[in-house]
Specification:
By secondary structure, the protein is an alpha+beta fold. The protein folds into two domains: 111 residues; 140 residues, Alpha-D-Glucose-1,6-Bisphosphate, Chain A, domain 4 (2-Layer Sandwich), CATH 3.30.530.50. Helices cover 55% and strands 15% of the residues. It is built from six helices and six strands; from the N terminus they run αααβαβαββββα. Strands 1, 2, 3, 4, 5 and 6 form a six-stranded antiparallel β-sheet that branches. Helix 2 crosses helix 3. It is elongated, with a radius of gyration of 26 Å.
Length: 259
C-alpha cells in the first residue's frame, strides 16, 4: 500500500514538474517574441502587421501558459513534498501573466477609447503643421483634422483644453520651448516670430513617430497655449497623444507657476 502511494506521489510530482516546465518554457519564449517585435519593426526586419501579430500571438499563448501553470501549481500544492514543482509553477505563472497582461489591457483600453490618432486642445481651429510636413511624406495619416475627429475627441477626452498662462507671448514661447525639450522631443522648428514650435516624439517599444505643434496666442497681458499631437501611422493611438498633450501642459503649467 505504501509503495503504491509512493508511486502515485512520484507520478504526480513528475506530472506537476512537467506542466510547470512546459508553462515556463512557453512564457519565456512568448516574452522573447513579444520583446523582439518592436525592435524588429524599428529595424525594418518585420513589417508592422507581422510585429503586431507576434505580440497578439504571444499574448494568446501566454494566456494558455498561465492556465497550465495554475494547473501545475494546484497539482504541486496537493503534494506538499514536491516543493520544487511549486516553485517552477509559480515562476511560470508570473512570467506568463507578465507577458499576457499588457496586450490584454491595451485591447480592453482600445475598446473604451475613441479610434482617433489626432489630439488638439483647440478642436475648432487646431494648430497647423508647417515644418514637419516634409517629414510626414508617406505617412499613413493625413494632417487634416475633420469634424468627426473633433466630435470623437470631445467625447473621449473632454479634459483636453488650451492652457492660459500669465506670461507675455515671448516669455510663454520660451517656457513652451523649454518644456518641449524637457519632454525629450526632437525639435523640428522653433519660430519665435510665429510663436510656433514643431517637434517629433517617438514611442518607446515600436518607435512610432508622432508629430507635435505648439501654438502661442496673445490674450490680454497673458498667453494661450494650444497643442496638437498627431500620429503618423495607426487608426487608434490607444490614448498616447492625449497622454502626451496632458503631460506637456502639466509640465508647462508647473514651469510657469515656479517662475
Amino acid at each position: 500500500m505504501q509503495a503504491a502511494t509512493s508511486t502515485s506521489e512520484s507520478r504526480s510530482a513528475r506530472f506537476g514538474r512537467a506542466l510547470g516546465r512546459i508553462a515556463l518554457a512557453a512564457g519565456v519564449l512568448c516574452a522573447v517574441a513579444a520583446l523582439s517585435a518592436g525592435p524588429a519593426y524599428r529595424t525594418g526586419a518585420a513589417p508592422l502587421g507581422v510585429a503586431l501579430q507576434v505580440i497578439r500571438g504571444s499574448a494568446i499563448v501566454a494566456t494558455g501558459g498561465a492556465v497550465v501553470a495554475v494547473i501545475a501549481l494546484l497539482v504541486a500544492m496537493a503534494r506538499p513534498s514536491v516543493r520544487r514543482a511549486r516553485g517552477v509553477a509559480a515562476v511560470a505563472l508570473f512570467v506568463n501573466v507578465l507577458v499576457a497582461a499588457p496586450p490584454l489591457l491595451l485591447y480592453r483600453q482600445a475598446q473604451q477609447l475613441p479610434r482617433i490618432h489626432d489630439i488638439s486642445t483647440d478642436t475648432a481651429d487646431p494648430p497647423r503643421f508647417v515644418a514637419v510636413l516634409p517629414l510626414r511624406q508617406g505617412a499613413r495619416n493625413a494632417v487634416d483634422y475633420p469634424a468627426s475627429t473633433a466630435a470623437e475627441q470631445r467625447r473621449g477626452y473632454p479634459d483636453i483644453a488650451p492652457l492660459t498662462l500669465p506670461l507675455a507671448p515671448p516669455a510663454a514661447f520660451e517656457r513652451a520651448l523649454q518644456a518641449a525639450r524637457a519632454m525629450g522631443w526632437d525639435i523640428v522648428a522653433a519660430v519665435p516670430g510665429a510663436l510656433r514650435i514643431e517637434a517629433t516624439d517617438s514611442t518607446l517599444l515600436f518607435g512610432f513617430k508622432d508629430d507635435v505643434v505648439v501654438r502661442i496666442t496673445p490674450q490680454g497681458a497673458g498667453s494661450v497655449v494650444d497643442v496638437r499631437s498627431l500620429s503618423r501611422v495607426g487608426g487608434s493611438d490607444l490614448g498616447t497623444n492625449a497622454k502626451r498633450v496632458r503631460a506637456y501642459l502639466r509640465r508647462l503649467s508647473d514651469s510657469a507657476s515656479a517662475r
